[in-house]
Amino acid sequence: MTNARKSKSRERVSGARAWMNAPTGYPVVWSVSLPTRYDSRDTLAVESLQEAIDEAARSNQSLEIDAHLYQYMVDMDFAPAAPPSGVSIAEAGNERLDEQREVHERAAGLVGMTAQSADDIATQRGLYVRVIRPGDAVTADYCATRVNLGIDETDHVRSVYLG
User: Cys-Cys link to 113, which of 21, 68, 107, 118 (CB 3.0-4.6 A)?
Assistant: First the structure.
């Protein structure tokens, strides 16, 4: 497991459905969400589809992936063409995924650039940009067509994510 955000007081719900989340930034991070008691979830970063399957199985949950998202996973070489055992494919219902995927693809290559260069290129690509420097206050509002540029102390882009 690469990165886990867990609450020690929450217990995962056995028999529930876990699901995969679309990556929304660079570097690309795939994650699996595991339902917990108290109407919440644990979200874990995973390095492979098998790791997501294993995490769901450890929680006694089935892993369900939207058909649209699964095709994206195949296109990104994260998943094989045929779903492995332990994965069920749900009817495509993620209407926003195509829009997110397009924005995600237009944001490619910005990591490592200076903030100004990345902002200029993203704007030329028709993206709505928000630059976030260390210590900046950031609102929690979500905009599926906005690209957030995470800038480090040297004024270079270290992360790019939608929202």
Answer: 118
Among 44, 142, 56, 62, smallest CA distance to 96 is for 142
Q: How many H helices and E strands in the chain?
A: 4, 10
Q: What are phi and psi of 97, to 5 degrees?
A: -60, -40
Q: Does residue 38 carry a pLDDT above 70?
A: no
Residue type, 111: V
Residue closest to 70 by CA, chosen among 35, 20, 18: 20
Lowest mean pLDDT among 8-12, 76-80, 105-109, 118-122: 8-12
Containing 149, the helix (H) or strand (E) segment is strand 146-151
List, in order, residues 6 or more apart from 94 with CB less than 8 Å away.
22, 66, 68, 69
3-state DSSP call for residue 110? coil
| pLDDT above 70 for 1 | no
Helix/strand/coil (H/E/C) assignment for every residue in 5-44: ECCCCCCECCCCEEEEECCCEECCCEEEEEEECCCEEEEE
Can you give the pLDDT at residue 15?
64
Which stretch of DSSP H or E encloses residue 51?
helix 49-58
